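Risk mitigation, structural track. In case the binding assays with DQA fail to produce interpretable data, a predicted complex structure has been prepared as a fallback.
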Amino acid sequence: MNTEGGDSNRRVRILILSGANLDLLGERDPKIYGNASLEECIESARSEAYRLGFEVDHFQSNSEGDLIDAIHKARGSCEAIVINAGALSHTSWAIHDALACFDGVVIELHLSNPAAREPFRHTSVIAGVADGSIAGFGRSGYAIAILGINELMKETERSEVGRG
Ligand code: DQA
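Fallback model:
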């Protein structure tokens, strides 16, 4: 995990990526995904980020290629990515490979707990390139992800100081 920014005065920048069908949050299966819209979920992340002095960008697409392009663009401009790729989490080796080329912190996020749902949701092809995963907390997961990034960055700083 490389969390070093080029300019030490620059605020930590986090990209939240939302994949397939997440634009329908609030209308789609509210018993599973809750009543909050995607914008409201992102707002939860933004408030936590504001508290911690981070900046948040958000991008949603239903297209795998657009998500991959966004991951490429985050290289060198963002310190962390939070990704809820929707069903692409279970299938997209191309997103896996793009995330593997990103040097910062990667958090996989799900509103529901896919492990407790249908078998096809039990495998995440993204999990292996994530530093951490958050699932089952609904909208709160977005704020938890930002908190998690802060904790992971503190851990990295501590181990770097330890190394002298
Ligand atoms: C999801 C879980 C996926 O299995 C599903 O395909 C989604 C949403 C979640 O946030 O719980 O689209 O990623």
